[in-house]
Amino acid sequence: MTRPVRVLVVDDDALVRAGLRMILGRAPGIDVVGEAADGAEVPAAVDACAPDVVLMDIRMPRVDGLAATERLRARPAPPEIIVLTTFDADEYVLRALRAGASGFLLKDTPPAEILRAVTRVAAGEPILSPSVTRRLIAHLDDPGGGARRHHARAVLDRLSPREREVADAVGRGSSNAEIGAELFMGVATVKMHVSRILTKLDLNNRTQLAILVHDAA
Q1: Domain termination site, one of 102, 128, 154
Q2: CB 96 within 8 Å of CB 25
Q3: Greatest alpha-carbon span in the chain
Q4: Nearest CA to 210 among 160, 157, 162, 174?
Q5: Does residue 138 lie in a domain region?
Q6: How many whole angstroms separate alpha carbon 199 and alpha carbon 154?
Q7: Strand 30-36 and strand 5-10: pairing?
Q8: Residues 10, 62: contact at Cβ < 8 Å?
Q9: Highest mean pLDDT among 145-149, 190-194, 202-206, 209-213
Q10: CB 114 within 8 A of CB 139
Q11: Are 2 and 29 in contact (CB under 8 A)?
């Protein structure tokens, strides 16, 4: 029997935490193992509860979800993180995705989609497609674009020409099947290339890769 997905809920609004606990607690295969009211409480809560997935509010009074995400992702074997926001074009969301969050959810997301997102992220699947990432990026100003572009290009230069082709296709939002058709390779080979690229560039998921490719453009 597969053990339940362990979830930690982090939000400074007690009503939001209660609502998420109610939604998640009713689902078979999901176990809410703890709560935190601020990013400052997250490290201790993760140590105590050992969650698989953290639902992380972005805007909190002492330590925001961005800083908490960065600190968690810097740990060995960190939990997956889904950031929560009331806005779909929030600069903090993009920064959290750069830090390694697996995706984001709006706080008014239907319960069934929240459950699906938690399950997918626990299985290692990012819930934010590169096309959504691009739309989010398009809504935001990037005052540090020049320095970020230089850094992204230097990082991508580590790739072989074939790996760079695959990375660019991921950045365009192409699926593995679409990449395979475009570059004349099997889906299994595409997956192997993507996995190798993420390892070589020390990235957590395809979303981070898509953002990196966008930064380099």
Answers
A1: 128
A2: no
A3: 52
A4: 174
A5: no
A6: 16
A7: parallel
A8: no
A9: 190-194
A10: no
A11: yes
